[in-house]
Amino acid sequence: MASSLRFPSDTLRIPPAQGEGTPERDGTAAIVRGSAKWAAAGAIGGGAAAALLAAGSSALALYFARRVITPASERPQDQEILAVIREGNTQQVILAATPDATLEGVYGLFFDNGRGHARIGRIVSYSPAERTVLREVEAVYSGDLSAARRGSWSGTIHPDPATLGVQAEDVLIEVDGGTAPAWLVRAAPVPGVESDVWAIMVHGRGASRQEGLRVLETAGKLGMSSLLISYRNDGLAPSAADGRYGLGSTEWRDVEAAITYALGQGAREVVLFGWSMGGAICLQTADLSRHRQVIRALVLDAPVISWVNVLAHHAELNRIPTSVGRYGQVMLGHRLGRRLTGLAAPVNFKAMDWISRAVELRTPTLILHSVDDEYVPYGPSANLAEKNPEMVTFEPFDTARHTKEWNVDPERWERLVAAWLRQQLAPRTNPGQSGPGGVPGRPEA
């Protein structure tokens, strides 16, 4: 098994080793040394061979664990760009036919180590034999796409609100360690719609506040002002003291700070939108925040419902023995593991397991999740809805892979979300009701 683990933008895939640097540089040697403490029992009880095996397993488990919680310094450029064709004012791009690049829809392509950003449109032609796909280039926001040879595929298609023709305010939210930048897009008045319910957009792991730009129009049509936030370790907000992701167990405090800001600006209630790990963060906010009573609803796209499930899935994908994968989870969740993982506090996986806690979720929740999601399996999302149908509505998508449900079928995504939210935002006849009759409705597909 390769010892190099990297996680693409808001994913947890662990590909084979490529260009991670020397063990000393990427920390592997230090991990192996530190893991000897965990392997001591094996050394005493099983002799030298057992000790070596235990040390190797411990090192792999620890490296796996650390990569889960360590923010990446840059996007992986795993999409090959073969050529750019210009015809007048239009451009087309020939790409290697990856699973992402052959999906219909509109996507973002980051290149030049994130300095370049293009919006990639429809498929013009696809050659399975040559393993290439020709697509339209709808816009190049920055950089020289014709000079790029590799890039990073993304569901993020806009760099900022201005490219959508939307006016936004640059605001700062007080969080632990300083201030976190956010975009505030104030909604235009909508006749018959209350304007004091705000949308707060919570991006996923390794992504940015740009992720929420796709759904600004939907929120605006519902009369909701939108706050697109940054949070600890995302490159904009202050880093956490330990420089590690809490997988939702710490980040929710930054969302709580965003709610505090919104309430101070005139909001009465909020709807939290979360993508992938952002979904886990939203669930923790609804559970733990002092503002949980003003959270009207959750809209979650490909959310992490159970980290145990996600980590087990990635261990299996990468042929990591089950016992080693579990060992990595123990390191993250046990107080003694903090000295090796670098976490300031262990991750409470039980508190973030919404399968076992299904009946405790009392905030109306809409989940949109593709059944072919390769990074966060959809099963827990469907399971949560099955266990708590009163509060959770599950809408499956096909062929969208991870967090690209909107990209593949924006019309359906927007229709489902708008219909469901209209029910949730309807005037409540009694306190505590979450919609007409007190039961969240199911929008038409």
UniProtKB/TrEMBL annotation:
Residues 1-26, 425-445 are annotated as: Disordered. The keyword tRNA processing does not apply. Keywords: Hydrolase. Residues 200-368 form the AB hydrolase-1 domain. Residues 434-445 have a biased composition (Gly residues). InterPro entries: AB_hydrolase_1, AB_hydrolase_fold. GO terms for molecular function: serine-type peptidase activity. It holds the Pfam family Abhydrolase_6. This is Alpha/beta fold hydrolase. One of its GO terms (biological process) is proteolysis. The keyword Secreted does not apply. PANTHER family: ALPHA/BETA HYDROLASE DOMAIN-CONTAINING PROTEIN, XAA-PRO DIPEPTIDYL-PEPTIDASE-RELATED. It comes from the Bacteria. It comes from Arthrobacter oryzae.
